[in-house]
Amino acid sequence: MWLILAFCSAALLGFYDVCKKKALLDNAVLPVLFLNTVICSLIFIPFIVLSLGTSVLDGTAFYVEPSTWAEHKYIILKACIVLSSWVFGYFAMKHLPITIVGPINATRPVMVLVGAMLVFGERLNVWQWIGVLLAIVSFFLLSRSGKKEGVNFSHNRWIFFLVAAAILGAVSGLYDKYLMAPPANGGVGLSRMVVQSWYNIYQLCLMGVTMFAIWYPTRKKTTPFKWRWSIILISVFLSIADFVYFYALSLPGAMISIVSMVRRGSVVVSFFCGAMIFKEKNLTSKLVDMLFVILGMVFLYIGSH
Questions:
Q1: Which domain holds residue 59?
Q2: What would the pLDDT profile of 108-151 be if each residue is shown by its tens digit?
Q3: How far apart are CA 294 and CA 254, in angstroms?
Q4: Backbone phi, then psi, for 263, in 5-degree steps?
Q5: How many domains does the chain have?
Q6: Which of 31, 98, 213, 285 is the most buried (most CB within 10 A)?
């Protein structure tokens, strides 16, 4: 069941990336990100209120358990990590083809595995090492394809933004494992709804400060903000994808390494939408690059199963 949910989350993430690209075309980045945090918070505030003030959600998958300030400190750190990843990722998505962004984002499970090896002392087997090497090869192939569109990986700051977003996303995945692991296993033992609900609220607070301290005073000197309905769809697809993801992780036997890998299958949706909707170029060479990414994910799956 948790594997099916992981595939559902992957599809939703693909549509999330497409809506994000659509919303960011010739648009101001920070207001789009701010509105994303606003809408995500509005989705989860009713669950928090109903859980704290009534018994309507008791025993359901949407119940938000009461939590202490000590636990909220962990969630605030989660919000800082995710929001930092989003800021880098949104700027990269605006300035780079989605057919490059998707495959690079799909290498996050490799970073999660390497992080698990360094932080949790896990050891990679032969299959996993092959998957890591294939992911590295795919990155160099993507750099070759990018040069055809004037995207030089070694001198393009948006590529560095994208890599920073991917690294922070991998850190967030490892931190999720720590947050939701039982205390007996060395984790914090938080429920998925507590994490997802409150980190959205804290992101809104952080993004609100960023908006009015950085963007608002300089808004007339930068790219103007344009309202698009795809901004709402960003939040809807992301919230459902994350809910399904956290729910999958909470099920018995769920493996964070496999769930993370399957979620990166979103690259298939974003790639073909990039081809059909955004009419991006050099699709044949990028398709080969993406296949290397997927092949790497298959080897990681085999090695982690």
A1: 2-304
A2: 767 777 776 776 666 767 887 787 787 777 777 777 766 666 67
A3: 21
A4: -60, -30
A5: 1
A6: 98
